[in-house]
Amino acid sequence: MGQSEVVQKIEQLHVLLAKIQQEYAPVGFANSFGAEDMVLTDLIARHYPRITMFTLDTGRLPQETYNLMQEVKDHYGVSLQVYFPEAATVESYIAQNGPNGFYQSVELRTRCCYVRKVEPLRRALAGKRAWITGMRREQAVTRDSLSISTFDAENNLQKFNPLCEWSNTEVWAYLKQHEVPYNKLHDRFYPSIGCAPCTRAISPGEDIRSGRWWWENAESKECGLHVGKVASINK
User: Fold this and answer.
1) Once rounded to an integer, what is the mean pLDDT over residues 147-170?
2) What are the domain boundaries of the chain?
3) Annotated active-site residue in 40, 223, 225, 231
4) Could you confirm whether 164 is annotated as catalytic?
5) Half-sphere exposure (CA, 13 Å, Cβ side) for 70?
6) What is the DSSP string of 105-171?
7) 112 a known binding residue?
8) Is residue 164 part of an annotated ligand binding site?
9) Domain covering 3-220, topology
């Protein structure tokens, strides 16, 4: 892709974010501090102050992710809302399944994701008219039909994926050109970063999300934040 096409994509991104800020307030950006989210962090922090940023602290994130959270606060001076899982629910899950029970089955893993991510997300989105993610089609087979805008029936609001058509090369070109801070685990072959026990480095030629929940099939590799149906914690 030529430089002019890259510039055009950035211009289109500005148009979309301005429209979202103007027409869908209050709107929140779900920031997981991955490479894609850092592109949006840079743009939103510098140009779209009425789009609020929030993140979900599962309690099991890598130290490098916390380091980046602090760096973002120091670098941009933005206020970041942090949502944690309900302590009693986490305690109940661990009492029943142990601290690493999520390795035992897809059901137990999705229940852990529900407790640590999905339920906090619902609280984060309460009162919002729309939310923004850094999801891209190229990331996984579960995301190949992703659209820029869709109605999130589960949370009853509009959902935007502004970078869905961007390539990994374009994401990193933006980060380097604008000197955007990023998670240092990326330099250690972690292209996709989630909770520490559910993320590993990948080998050359592996799929970009093969390091996430690596013990599962590719078709099941979603946490529940971006699918229409989530696991019930009461099962």
Assistant:
1) 95
2) 3-220
3) 223
4) no
5) 5
6) -HHHHHHHHIIIIIHHHHHHHTT-SEEE----GGG-GGGTT--SEEEETTTTEEEE-TTTT--HHHH
7) yes
8) no
9) Rossmann fold (3.40.50)
